[in-house]
């Protein structure tokens, strides 16, 4: 098993106006997630922060 720590990567991003989840989470077409750089990463970070 590897004993070295996992490296932390910091990425500068900006919020997207349409990232407002409803009761079922963030519902978007696949093309939105694939077409916008860091879209999913931004959303996950906003939930955790």
Automatic annotation (TrEMBL):
Q: Which domain of life is it from?
A: Eukaryota
- What's the protein name? Phosphoglucomutase 5
